[in-house]
Amino acid sequence: MNETEKGAYMTIQLIICGSTRFERWRKKWGLSMLIDGDVLFDTFCNARYLSNSLKKFGIAPGTIRHIVISHEHWDHTGGLWWLLQNTVNAKVYVCGGFSEDFKNRVKEYGGTLMEAVDPVTIKDNITTTGEIKTIYKGEALYEQSLLIEQNGRLAVLTGCSHPGILKILDRITMLGKNEIDLLAGGLHLLHKTDKELGEIAAKLDSDYKIKAIAPIHCSGKKAVAYFKNNMPHKFVKISPGGCFNYNGETSSRKQ
Known about the structure:
Layout: E1 10-18, H1 21-25, E2 30-35, E3 39-41, H2 47-56, E4 66-68, H3 74-77, H4 80-85, E5 91-94, H5 100-108, E6 112-115, E7 121-123, E8 126-128, E9 132-136, E10 139-143, E11 146-150, E12 153-158, H6 165-174, E13 180-186, H7 194-206, E14 212-216, H8 221-230, E15 243-246, E16 251-254
Parallel strand pairs: 3-4, 4-5, 5-6, 12-13, 13-14
Antiparallel strand pairs: 1-2, 1-15, 2-3, 7-8, 8-11, 9-10, 11-12, 15-16
Helix pairs in contact: 7-8
């Protein structure tokens, strides 16, 4: 951790995550990450799990000012309504393609709706990618990721990467950003073959020059093992409570 200058780093903390088949079967599925103390990325699958986790790590829900929802699936939105009841005028960043029912419910629960069709600045050096459209199970799905920029480098946080992680990273490079220091979140690689995983890993290494990768949630057991075995110098295991103290040059970890 670099403490020589105030604001030289941002803390990225994994609040809660469900990554195994057993956790999915138990409906303890999804993820939620806290950035810089007051920006929450996704809200897990339900209020009880999210509430207990925030309490466990000493985080008062009222301190959360910004809530970014990656996509509209239940495992990323379940704790939102409880959270809005325990915050005051929190800004909720959603994709423009989210359903009108969802947007209206955010307002009904007292949230300030922020639609992110294009990239939106949340605070300081934290922005969204803007929405990326894909087709999932025959229906349109809109997803956004989160960018944290320090000293010309990037940390990228993903919810599920339904559009494809390479497509998301291509969008980021189109925004004129590169040199990705950290990639963390759900990568949705459950059904990829070893050959496909190898091609993805090669691009992460050569095209995007990713220094650290923390695959969680829907990344898939096989993909996690692949990255761990084939990119051991880049692979990072992070569990709930674990932090990245991100300063744009290194991603120091603590559990």
